[in-house]
Amino acid sequence: MPSRVSPVERARAEIDQLFADPARDLGEVLEEVARLGARLLLQTALEAEVTAFLGRDRYQRRPDADPGYRNGHQPVTSKTTSGPVTLERPKLRGTSQRFASTLLGAQVTRTNALEALVIAGFVRGLSTRDVEASLAEALGPRAAVSRSTVSRIGEQISTEFTAWSTRSLADIELDYLYLDGTCFRYHPGARAEPVLVAYGITTTGGPVFLGLAPAASEGHDPWVDFLADLTNRGLRSPVLVISDGAPGLVSAAEHTFPAARRQRCLVHRVRNVVAKVPVHAQAEVKAAYWQIFDNIELPAGQAAVEEATRRAVAFTARYERTYPAAVAC
Description:
Number of helices: 11
Radius of gyration: 24 Å
Number of domains: 3
Number of strands: 7
Strand order of the largest sheet: 5-4-3-6-7
Helix content: 40-55%
Order of helices and strands: HHEEHHHEEEHEHEHHHH
Low-confidence stretches: 106-116, 118-126
Distance between the termini: 48 Å
Shape: elongated
Structural class: alpha/beta
């Protein structure tokens, strides 16, 4: 990526690329969203403070602004609950007074609540009050943040999320649509609330992140509303919908995409199978389970289905007496 691209833009680009690997587990992807989101928020805050300090944006000229100028960045590290996050602290030259970040102080401090703040921000849009409260809790009362800086950060991220979550999906043609939900605590001490997620694989083999929204529950009605938003923006029926076995999600998918076939997610299924096996045998049974599906060197079609079926029969013969509940699952 060109060196003139700002650190904030680089962080956004990394978030955009998160879903490039369709084999990644949803939980791992969202954890990475939290880490990169914390980095994006902190980096945006630093850049916003410099803009307020100098009185002008990057590459903007104003005769009434501070005579100083931006002169690159210096890497610094912030410790978060998702692990260390590398930021790029702006370096200034020729200023009339020394710049010190009121958000992070002379040195970058430890954060504790940024992941929850960022997830809540991407899903719900950021309000000034929420940002101020979360930053005060994360960084302590000495981390003074001006309302203008908080508003600038909140408006920027909220605007970007709104644009992304209302964009047209009419040009997307899917083979596979993955639907899942996961729960987050938006604030310390609060109950975990569900986030509904949709991503897929296009007919050209490319991954695409389609939608993300909060919900009161993972029942039928919230899923129907979530999928209706996607179809109202032009998303057409996929060939295959992949989900866990939650009744509300299954019924919503069948209601919204009646022409699509549906498959139980193999990852969710293996978790169910392994849960019915003693701990000492779980690794063996899990490996045998994946052997049913992996490395079938046949063209897609009936021959591949027959090979997988043959392997499933062999799995049954191997374990039906020892672990009948796992085989039944």
